[in-house]
């Protein structure tokens, strides 16, 4: 029995409720309980430190109020190795959020309860009684140690020392690869009180955690070795953590119900009011609360620009390199004109992080402040998360992260995309001015995410290729409709077009202005979110008649408009121009880098690899047209089709591009004068990727077949596709010239795919299996004829090998 009671107590402490026992019949007043020498921290709640114990004063006015807890890493843990796939673990990272509330419980206990959110049903709804009969989940239950008429005092010492997610890193254990919590090495180190929040600061220690890649002598994860040599347990870690308890507004901001046709991050809320016969989860957009000050409402309604009551302010980390700071600020401020279009001036801005003397309340764990932090990491990335009120979608603050090694990535990007047009791109390392302009581009994109915007990978498809080579057009429109696309540079511009360096970088586009207006436009005469949604729905339907305002979710594998790193409405035209620029780079690579490289040609090898990777991306952009279809993500009332196959002409154009730039060997990409120095060879570095790409091309027959079933023979057919594949891959069999190693590789890969695919269930429809069998017979016959004209050893052995593969396959049928 004693053992059972002990287990129950442990379960209550760590699973559902922690009862701190003390009778409440003889409670002293808070004034009598708190000693004169106790330390007091004043804020939304008062905290007292007395005799090494922490006490929290909870006023009745804050009962049943929603409190958001935000867990921030104030100081990261020094580690010998860090998993490069994990982006969190640095100072300023927000790693967990949750909401709770205090309520009175059984026999004067004070409960810390899990908060729940939903759209309440009407009084007459059948759901009302059901919801009233639900019991709130208790996280911790406290017995007060002192009591006043309108407040109670509770001992939170044990709670502060525990590993509960409202105070520690337990909510991010997987992301941080943490081991068991070590309470003997953890301790509170301070409390800070603010008008709307309370921050508990502590050191949190954890034992050895998950398995991570073992670094090699260069500090990078080893590749290609056996698992025993390449992985290790993370060591013990210690962190300084800020747990912010932020009092959410008593009245949540009005919801803005999401529209799938406008790219906003969204959350779901259960709606008991919309449909009396069905409970629904409805999505709502995440956005800041941008409203005019009460005294400026009349000016705002007259169309005058006014400053919002609560502007969005980003503070730039003091650890940011000095030369980048003005560009970070400019990247944030770039959004000001977009907000001016909907009536707000100075709605968003950036400032340098204040000193303690300038603003003693500023800290990275204070949820009242948004920051752009600079991370000392080898990760080449940046990201923009938000702290959100889950009841309404209101963005409360944001912690944009910029990792140090993004500068290396930007340098490679600029070289491979712009060196043909900008002579300054050929001088490595790049100048601080160029690096700053690119960093500004990154900040503008990431801040766009923190305004609620998702990626808009259709933005780069908005303009035709000829237009984005014209100065007048680009000056007015940019070369894409959205900065939220991965639209890095104007890589189709040619040297003769004469673009200046600053014209090669993207800027905020018309889609971005449209999306911000959708999310932040105010409707003073509307009574609720439903009225807002109805007006906005009609407006979006009207705007989408212009393709610049189309938005599609990322991740569509068949719509060629939805791609990253691409440009222009025709990937074949864009790719042809881009490859012309790559050829210029390869012709001059050795000269451009000779003064900036080491004896091992490290820079040359890295830039050669970057050029080869970019070439592969151009092939992939084109490939998406083959078997592609357009899905407009439209509402029924718009009268648009959500399934339109790419035209036959475009698919034929794409196949011609694949023939020219993939079936035919890109010898210019691997010149001997470069590969002799870098040892970057086709067979060693990229042959496997090119072989794998053949599979991606080959299996397009499935997507083409689907289009054929949907719309009939008027589009590109599977039969045409296989004919084009054969013509492109085996056109050299009739001549006496030797078949190159590159072509032999592609032909062998293609035949292997044919022999495998004929029995694939995906081949049974549209007589595809029959077409594949015809291709096999066609290749076999061509090899037999070719053996009569080929005289070189390699070609003949290759042709005999293919013939043997087919013969063995036929013998096994």
TrEMBL record:
Provide the residue span(s) of the region labelled Disordered: 213-235
Stored InterPro entries = DUF5117, DUF5118, EcxA_zinc-bd, MetalloPept_cat_dom_sf, Zn_MMP-like_bac
Query: Which CDD domains has this protein been placed in?
Result: ZnMc_MMP_like_2
Q: Report domain EcxA zinc-binding positions.
A: 429-735
Molecular function (GO) terms for this protein are: metallopeptidase activity
Pfam families, A to Z: DUF4953, DUF5117, DUF5118
* SUPFAM superfamilies, alphabetized: Metalloproteases ('zincins'), catalytic domain
Record domain DUF5117: where:
92-293
Q: Where is the composition biased (Polar residues)?
A: 222-235
Would you indicate the residue range of the signal peptide?
Answer: 1-21
Q: Where is the DUF5118 domain?
A: 28-70
**What keywords does the record list, in alphabetical order?**
Hydrolase, Metalloprotease, Protease, Signal
Organism in which the protein naturally occurs: Pedobacter sp. KACC 23697
Q: What's the name of the protein?
A: Zinc-dependent metalloprotease
């Amino acid at each position: 029995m004693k053992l059972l009671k002990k287990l129950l107590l442990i379960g209550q402490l760590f699973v559902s409720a922690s009862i701190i026992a003390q009778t409440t019949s003889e409670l002293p007043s808070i004034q009598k309980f708190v000693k004169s020498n106790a330390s007091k921290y004043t804020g939304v709640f008062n905290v007292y430190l007395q005799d090494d114990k922490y006490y929290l004063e909870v006023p009745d006015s804050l009962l049943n109020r929603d409190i958001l807890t935000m867990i921030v890493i104030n100081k990261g843990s020094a580690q010998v190795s860090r998993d490069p796939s994990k982006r969190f673990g640095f100072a300023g990272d927000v790693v967990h959020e949750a909401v709770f509330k205090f309520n009175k419980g059984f026999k004067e206990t004070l409960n810390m309860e899990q908060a729940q959110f939903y759209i309440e049903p009407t009084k007459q709804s059948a759901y009302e009684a059901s919801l009233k009969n639900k019991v709130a989940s208790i996280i911790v239950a406290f017995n007060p140690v002192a009591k006043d008429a309108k407040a109670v005092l509770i001992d939170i010492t044990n709670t502060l020392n525990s590993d509960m997610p409202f105070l520690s890193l337990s909510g991010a254990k997987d992301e941080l690869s943490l081991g068991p919590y070590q309470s003997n090495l953890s301790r509170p180190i301070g409390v800070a009180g603010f008008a709307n929040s309370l921050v508990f600061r502590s050191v949190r220690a954890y034992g050895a955690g998950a398995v991570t890649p073992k670094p090699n002598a260069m500090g990078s994860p080893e590749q290609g070795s056996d698992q025993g040599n390449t992985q290790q347990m993370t060591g013990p870690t210690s962190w300084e953590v800020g747990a912010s308890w932020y009092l959410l507004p008593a009245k949540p901001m009005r919801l803005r119900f999401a529209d799938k046709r406008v790219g906003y991050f969204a959350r779901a809320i259960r709606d008991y009011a919309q449909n009396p016969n069905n409970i629904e989860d409805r999505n709502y957009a995440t956005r800041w609360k941008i409203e005019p000050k009460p005294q400026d409402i009349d000016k705002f309604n007259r169309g005058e620009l006014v400053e919002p009551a609560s502007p969005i302010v980003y503070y730039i980390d003091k650890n940011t390199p000095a030369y980048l700071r003005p560009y970070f600020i400019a990247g944030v401020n770039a959004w000001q004109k977009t907000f001016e279009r909907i009536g707000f001036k100075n709605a968003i801005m950036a400032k340098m992080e204040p000193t303690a003397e300038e603003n003693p309340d500023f800290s990275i764990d204070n949820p009242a402040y948004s920051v752009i932090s600079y991370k000392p990491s080898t990760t080449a990335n940046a990201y923009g998360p938000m702290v959100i009120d889950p009841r309404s979608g209101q963005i409360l603050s944001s912690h944009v992260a910029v990792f140090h090694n993004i500068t290396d990535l930007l340098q490679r990007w600029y070289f491979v995309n712009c060196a043909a047009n900008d002579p300054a791109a050929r001088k490595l390392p790049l100048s601080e001015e160029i690096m700053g302009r690119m960093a500004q581009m990154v900040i503008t994109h990431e801040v766009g995410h923190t305004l609620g915007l998702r990626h808009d990978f259709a933005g780069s498809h908005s303009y035709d290729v000829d237009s984005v080579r014209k100065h007048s057009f680009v000056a007015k429109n940019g070369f894409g409709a959205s900065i939220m696309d991965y639209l890095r540079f104007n890589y189709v511009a040619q040297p003769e077009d004469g673009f200046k360096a600053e014209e090669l970088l993207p800027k905020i586009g018309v889609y971005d202005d449209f999306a911000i207006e959708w999310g932040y436009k105010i409707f003073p005469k509307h009574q609720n979110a439903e009225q807002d949604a109805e007006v906005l729905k009609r407006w979006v339907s009207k705007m989408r008649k212009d393709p610049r305002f189309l938005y599609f979710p990322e991740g569509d594998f068949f719509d060629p408009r939805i791609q990253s790193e691409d440009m222009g409405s025709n990937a074949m035209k864009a790719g042809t121009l881009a490859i012309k620029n790559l050829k210029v780079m390869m012709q001059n690579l050795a000269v451009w880098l000779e003064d900036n490289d080491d004896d091992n040609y490290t820079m040359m090898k890295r830039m050669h690899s970057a050029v080869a990777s970019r070439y592969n991306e151009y092939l992939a952009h084109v490939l998406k047209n083959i078997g592609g279809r357009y899905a407009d993500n439209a509402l029924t009332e718009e009268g648009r089709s959500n399934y339109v196959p790419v035209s036959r002409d475009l698919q034929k154009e794409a196949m011609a591009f694949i023939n020219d730039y993939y079936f035919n060997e890109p010898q210019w990409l691997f010149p001997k004068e470069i590969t002799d120095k870098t040892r970057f060879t086709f067979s060693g570095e990229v042959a496997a990727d090119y072989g794998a790409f053949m599979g991606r091309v080959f299996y397009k027959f499935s997507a083409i077949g689907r289009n054929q079933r949907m719309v009939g023979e008027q589009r590109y057919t599977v039969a045409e596709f296989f004919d084009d594949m054969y013509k492109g891959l085996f056109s050299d069999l009739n001549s006496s010239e030797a078949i190159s190693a590159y072509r032999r590789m592609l032909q062998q890969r293609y035949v292997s795919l044919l022999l495998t695919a004929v029995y694939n269930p995906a081949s049974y429809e549209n007589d595809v299996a029959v077409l594949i069998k015809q291709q096999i017979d066609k290749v076999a016959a061509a090899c037999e004829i070719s053996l009569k004209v080929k005289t070189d050893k390699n070609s003949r052995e290759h042709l005999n090998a293919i013939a043997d593969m087919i013969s063995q396959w036929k013998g096994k049928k």
